[in-house]
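Box S1 | Example of a co-folding query
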Amino acid sequence: MKNALITGITGQDGSYLAELLLEKGYNVYGIMRRKSEVTYGNVEHIKEKIHFIYADMTDPISLISAMKISQPDEVYNLAAQSFVATSWDTPLGTADIDALGVTNMLEAIRIVKPEARFYQASTSEMFGLVQAIPQSETTPFYPRSPYGVAKLYGHWITKNYRESYNMYACSGILFNHESERRGKEFVTRKITDAVSRIKQNVQDHIELGNMDAKRDWGHSKDYVNAMWLMLQQETPDDYVIATNETRTVREFVEIAFRCVDIEVEWSGEGINEIGKDKATGKEIVKINPQFFRPAEVEILIGDPAKADTNLGWEREIPFAELVERMVKNDMKLVAKEIKAANL
Ligand code: NAP
Ligand code: GDD
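Box S1 (continued) | Returned holo structure for guanosine-5'-diphosphate-alpha-D-mannose
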């Protein structure tokens, strides 16, 4: 039986990865931050099966302890301040966790169990102002946010430890992946939650920022499988994980509303753009400049050919199903909320 240590286990990816590793018979250890109220986030439903260790990416001693307790064969470093917009508000905190935190984890591995295999959660955000379309492992990086810059450090330090110490250390350059467990501040979940509230008459409209931004969106469940595959190879390497499809935020909005039989009709431009419910004429989508970013990543579309060839990785959940699953789930959650409020 293998031991795995997951940082960021309470997050979206941490939860799907924990489920996958439990299914495969791993002993799963997860690091968790102390909060004023004990909550298990996305792993509430499997908390009895996980060995939790209190630690923090900014506290190297706690990571050394986590390594000693868990004695992992595989370490998945998913912990991060992962919301790009907030990285302008907390640039140093983001760097502490997303950049230096990676070195803290790598050093803890080197000290306690250097033969442990290491996965780093790198990101398509590192491509930023893209230098090629589509983006692959050989595309030069040009990050556009404090988050992207911090993650680029994490990416290179992982490669450096592989080359300096011959460690089995890989980075997955993952493009956007979403799910029913996505945090509500990210645009996809913000949209599917709002669509469900608008449909059930508990919200009038949604306010969004840049509707022209294009993203390559997949489902988290498929992407955690790629993480695992990367650590099962003979030699460590870095891989792009993506769907090779891209859509605007506006298209996501249209498809999500269509899941509840609402057709959006657009008018106006820029900050005056408005989306109306074609059947009722009600304004259901508005622009709020508050959600624009100081620097934007306009287009992401990844080429996963290397992962396909070397890992045999393929995504299983197509885009339309991703949106449908998210909307269905939020429709249920909102209905439950309404029922509870009426009781
Ligand atoms: P997420 O839902 O925001 O989860 C982040 C996790 O990190 C949470 O468990 C959080 O714990 C933990 N964390 C934050 N700061 C920490 C600290 N100082 N010490 C210990 N734990 C800390 O993110 P996700 O979507 O699952 O993404 C997982 C990883 O993949 C992240 O590194 C992200 O940057 C990267 N990534 C994500 C995507 C994507 O599209 N989802 C794409 C590329 C890369 P709390 O519960 O205590 O907050
Ligand atoms: N969050 C948000 N809220 N984004 C909006 C909004 C809004 O109201 N309106 C438009 N957008 C646009 C953003 O400007 C961005 O271009 C796009 O929607 C996606 O935003 P997010 O869903 O917040 O994700 P992200 O692409 O910035 O970052 C995610 O993907 C990265 C991989 O490329 C995160 O998961 C990162 O952690 C991850 O590394």
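The radius of gyration is 20 Å. The CA atoms of residues 15 and 266 lie 37 Å apart.
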